[in-house]
Amino acid sequence: MLLTDPDFVRRLEALYLLARKVLGGSLQADRKSTRKGSGITFADHAEYALGDDYRSIDWRVYARLETLMIKLFEIEEDTTVHIILDCSRSMESKFLHARQIAASLAYIALSSMDRVVIHSMGQTLETILPHTHGRGKLMTMLQAMQDTPCSGNDSRFSELTRELLVRYRRRGMVIVVSDFLFAEGYETGLQRLQWFGHEVYGLQVLDDQDTRCTLRGDMDLTCVETGNARRVTITATEAAAFEKAMANWNESLKSQCAKMGIGLTQTTTDVPFDQVIQAILHRGGLVA
Amino acid sequence: MSFLNPLALWALTAIIPLTAVYLLKIKPRKQPTTALFLWQQILSQRKSSSLFQRLRHLLSLLLMLLAFIAIVMMMARPQLGSQNRQDLLIVIDRSASMNCLDHGRSRLEQAKDQARQIVLALHGRQRAAIATMSDDFVFHCHLTDDTRQLTDAIAAITPGYTAVTDAALSQVGQQPAWAREHRVIVLTDGCFDLEKWPENKHVSLERIGSPQQNVGITVCDLTPLPSNVPTLGLYVQLVSTYDQPVEISLTLSHVEDASTDSKRLVKVWPLTLEPGVNDGQVFEIADDTPGRWLLELDHEDALVQDNTAWMVVAKPTPVKVAVAAEPRYFFQHAVNAFAQNQAVMTLSELDQADVVLSQQTASDAGHAVIFAPQNTSPWWESVGKPLDAFVPRVEIKDHPALRYLDMSALRFAGAKQVSLPAGTVVWVRSDQGVPLMWWGQHAGRSAIVVNMDPAEDVFYLSPYFPVMIQSFASYLVGRQAVDPSTYRPGERVMLDRAAKRYSPKLQQLGFHKIGVQDKLIACSLLSEADSLVGDVTIEATQQSVARGQAPAYWFGVLALCLLSAECLLYHRRKVD
Asked: Whole domain around residue B16: which residue ranges?
């Protein structure tokens, strides 16, 4: 299925409506800023200082305390959502699924008037979609993702996160869509993102070939990314050991994310992308 | 170059799977993976911590060490048992009982296998000879250490149908001239007279086969009977090795056409055989057709050969007898008594006669039976006074011509003193030594002279008078001994009685035509010892003999197995 397919777009629209219903009301730039200013939601009182807007003086307080106090309101501002899409060769079998999920999240973000930047993570960090704002950029976003190849070799997650932080200093939200099968590990990259104040969310996409081993006999196992090979004889014992190691790896990712307060969704290509998004919306933590 | 065991070359086909294993080893399937780092992690953990991995290396080392040791042992050519390597004489029993099927194979084949195993164990450092015993003792290969020659000799041994004779057994026990230190190994089923087994410390017995269930014909005869109607008399004796009585059918057939083996079933007798040797039975058949006859036991058992008896009923040729004695009536009547249904004798003219019956003197034609000798003749020199009372005494007991005569019933009335020429054979004398009955030969003719006057004491009316004439006439023309209806293997057939010429020993069962006149005879197994294949209680000698392949051979096989196992278990695996 193409990402620009009308049917796919319709499914994205349905997801957006669901998001509005679940989250209640407008999603328009509804992320609270930590700065206080001229919003409409009362936040606090402050002593009047020279230069403050007279209109913000709270005369009722003055009548009671004979002190000039001004009302502070929360500033409501848009945020930048970085979607990092793993485009390494290990994602080849699940690339369409990963792109569908990433496009769904990007669509919801664009509809919420957030800024969206989509990155491809391969050997280097490339920008698929630069800073984009508004629903009008939907097709641009979908076309860009459609044209993104899956050709990256040897993705080094931690280094690429550092590159992201260097390029984009403003805090925002970082959604990593990947299989998280990084030989050097994922902990450093996730910690780095979080340490710089980003809201981090992980979306692990796997398929049956990743989790199960049906191979038997003599094999030259070759890494799809690096091309490194290893000659092995796979018996039932080795296959079971691999499946166990894979399960441990995924469990470790889950517990590590929980420990760091990072949201994580683990899914497989068997689950349709809209069901994945629905589950995320219902569970909360990503959009709300 | 030749191979003692060419079948072992089939082991070369193992090269194919070994090569396949090797090729498979160097060309494994390529398989892309998204998590090679996990595989490396697993394999490194197994390598570093798995006991199996460590044991696998040790196992490989152990297998290689064992293979090396096996090869060294093979080169050292170890021997089992003592170093004293005696010369061996391997004697294989090829008597009829060795044709018995024992667990699907004949005992002879089993004995040959055993002999091969012993020969294989010689390893070229020990000499052996091969012989067989049955009705005689025959060497098939003299003392040699050439294994090929010995195995060829064993392979050339064919089944025999004769019984083991005492002569053959005695030769087994004789010290061979060619061996200073020797051992005789007899491979036999023990179907012979065990009392004749040679008591010799060098002779050991290897028992072949086990008791089997069998029934067989051990004695049979088929001969025309004197009767008003054509009649054959069948005498048969059967044996059984079954523990219980067994029901069988005995069939008698006449072979109508020898070229096509077409048979005419003449008679079937349902019989119940008791265990062991059964009593002989006589049957009469209203048929006297000469020619080939088959007596068959319709029963499946261990030994097939003793279920059939081949028999021949010969067409009798009457002896032409002329009468030149008085009174002629009694002599002609005596001849006519044997001229009826079986036509043993027939009256003839004097010039065509085979035998002439005369009194007092002999005629010039044919052989003669002469009563009451007078004067002189070529068969006696002089005749003296009549004898007083005397008692006849048989000089040659069991003489065929006297077989049917009762000497105690003959009075030799009118006997006189006689003197005989040299070369005369006296059969009966008086107790004073006067010849009463003798046989002589002169000018190519022979005569039997009876020193008695048949007219005295009315001997003409005695039943022994015609019997005497028939016996003597048949003897003179060489027909007094009726050919048996069947012979046993190993027997010889008399081809010319006068010249005492015999056929070679009969070896094959069935009908045969022998001699220049193509005389039809039959040969049947008829051996009680061989038919009783289940009643043998012989025990093997408790003296072991090396058999089978040399230990070096098995070390070689072991080395091959170990190397193959090491290749499959260790090199076959790619996981380091």
From this structure: 6-27+39-77+563-571
